[in-house]
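Structure first, sequence second, as always.
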């Protein structure tokens, strides 16, 4: 069907499905990521699509360097400023983007 990339929102699901999927697809982490779980997926995914805070950016950078990688990321933005949702606040986006770009 021409699919080359798929998304998964849970680290545990990636780890379980990886043996079957890794030869056929690029896998993107699309869900919220806890810093302590970066080590499990840093060398297994093609992209992290949910970067939303500096400590997570630091951990992704640190773990990627350990594996000789430069991890592509997408920044999650909370455009509605909804406290129950993740993401960088719109007013912090420029400074956060500048910070993350230096890593």
């Amino acid at each position: 069907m021409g699919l080359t990339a798929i998304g998964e929102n849970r680290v545990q699901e990636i780890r379980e499905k990886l043996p079957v999927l890794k030869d056929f697809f690029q896998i993107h982490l699309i869900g919220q990521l806890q810093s302590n779980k970066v080590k499990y997926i840093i060398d297994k995914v093609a992209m992290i699509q949910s970067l939303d805070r500096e400590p997570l950016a630091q951990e992704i950078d640190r773990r990627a360097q350990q594996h000789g990688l430069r991890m592509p990321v997408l920044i999650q933005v909370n455009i509605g400023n909804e406290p129950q949702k993740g993401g960088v606040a719109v007013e912090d986006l420029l400074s956060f983007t500048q910070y993350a770009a230096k890593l």
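Margin note: The chain has a mean pLDDT of 94.
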